[in-house]
Amino acid sequence: MSFTSSLIASLGVDAPITQSSFTYLTLAVVYGSILLYRGQKLRIPWYWYLALGFVDVQGNYLVNKAFQFSSITSVTLLDCWTVVWAIILTYIFIGTRYSLWQLFGAALCVLGLGLVLLSDAGVGGGDGSKPLLGDALVISGTLFFAMSNVGEEFCVKKKDRVEVISMLGLFGMLVSGVELSIFELRSLESVTWSTDIMLAGIGYTLSGFMFYTITPFVLKLSGATMFNLSLLTSDMWAVVVRILFYQQQVDWLYFLAFALVVVGLVIYSTT
């Protein structure tokens, strides 16, 4: 998802809400059809799904928007801030307890965040038109993603996964449709559509569909915090994409930050 989102931004398309709206549409159609076939009533009130859809849409918007200003490596590595929010929210609302070693492992992951910010502030020379603005958007988006992940974890551990995904798709589609009509119509009208843009959009939709399909299973098995820590391994691929596809150099601070993330993930998962 990060690669296709950064590719869409590099092609000159500024429509972050539109990107995710098609993913929500596919989720609503596929899993909503299964839910209708079952003929079952909702086990969780619809307004909770509306809230879940709302925070998820905001998270997608802020992170996708960040690709307009910052590099793919910065955006993906700064996703680690979701871990902090997930720990706080799961502790408060779900009652999850963490050992000191787990907190230490998570702290190492977050230390990588400081190195990325240091690089993007100019010490290491971050790429992007306004890297610090992009970083701020990502960090803001991670709070919404953490709320979405914790909400999903609570729902899938107590209720039906198909219902959760279908309702997230339905209300995510409705919320993004409203916001799109208010904020992005002018941006869409100015886009010169091409095959590359269409293929990148399809790639984003398909990868998003697979991501949202797999997420409930991981949340049920390991919880929101471990889920977000595991996602940090995608940073390695972001570095590969930046070097091979965008032909950009990667500052040495990114590699140090990634090493801290890996060590932190190992400590957290083994204690």
Write the layout of secondary structure elements.
Layout: H1 2-10, H2 16-38, H3 46-66, H4 72-78, H5 81-94, H6 100-123, H7 131-158, H8 161-183, H9 185-189, H10 195-231, H11 234-244, H12 252-270
Helix pairs in contact: 1-10, 2-3, 2-8, 2-10, 3-7, 3-8, 4-11, 5-7, 5-10, 6-12, 7-10
Task: Walk me through the structure.
It is globular, with a radius of gyration of 18 Å. It is mainly alpha-helical. It has one domain (2-6, 14-270). The model has no long low-confidence stretch (mean pLDDT 82). The protein starts with a helix and ends with a helix. 82% of the residues lie in helices and 0% in strands.
What radius of gyration results from the CA coordinates? Answer: 18 Å
What is the strand tally? 0
Strand content: under 5%
| Tally of domains | 1
Number of helices: 12
Protein name: Solute carrier family 35 member F2 isoform 3
GO molecular function, one term: transmembrane transporter activity
Family: Belongs to the SLC35F solute transporter family.
Subcellular location: Membrane
Structural key phrases:
271 residues; mainly alpha; 12 helices; 82% helix
Please outline what is shown here:
The protein is an all-alpha fold.
